[in-house]
Amino acid sequence: MELSSLSLTELRRLQARVENEIRRRSDSTRKDLLKKMQRMAADQGLSLEEVVAAAAGTEKKPKAAAAKPRRAAKAAGSKGSRVAPKYRHPEDEKATWTGRGRKPLWVEKWLAEGGALEALLIKQG
Predict the structure, then answer these.
(1) Structure pTM?
(2) Which intervals of the chain are annotated as region Disordered (predicted)?
(3) What mean pLDDT is predicted for residues 46-65?
């Protein structure tokens, strides 16, 4: 096919046909790949959702395991890890601090007024 011999209108029609064919083939390829991946996961006794969640780091625990709480050990220094608060403001229960990083202003003020950091500890149990 000699493109230089086509008119602008013919080129645009051809472009639209090519774009539609690319879209159709991409959709077909995506569906085929999804089916293959689902079969591979099923062969290992897993669902594709479990595999994807594990790869994304958002793995859901099985319902039986969810009944008993368990602390997940995270690598030291891992970004975004949540740490339970260790200290609480004596008057405002919503103001807490994990004990990591900079001291909040309310802790600084408490210490400046002669208060002991241990007095702010959250009692466990």
Answers:
(1) 0.39
(2) 57-96
(3) 76
Distance (Å, rounded) from C-alpha 69 to C-alpha 67?
6
- Could you tell me the two tokens for 49? 């959702």
Token pair 């466990």: residue:
124
SS3 string of the chain?
CCHHHCCHHHHHHHHHHHHHHHHHHHHHHHHHHHHHHHHHHHHCCCCHHHHHHHHHCCCCCCHHHHCCCCCCCCCCCCCCCCCCCCEECCCCCCCEECCCCCCCHHHHHHHHCCCCHHHHECCCC
The whole-number average pLDDT for the span 32-55 is 90
Q: What ranges do the domains of the chain cover?
A: 3-62, 87-120
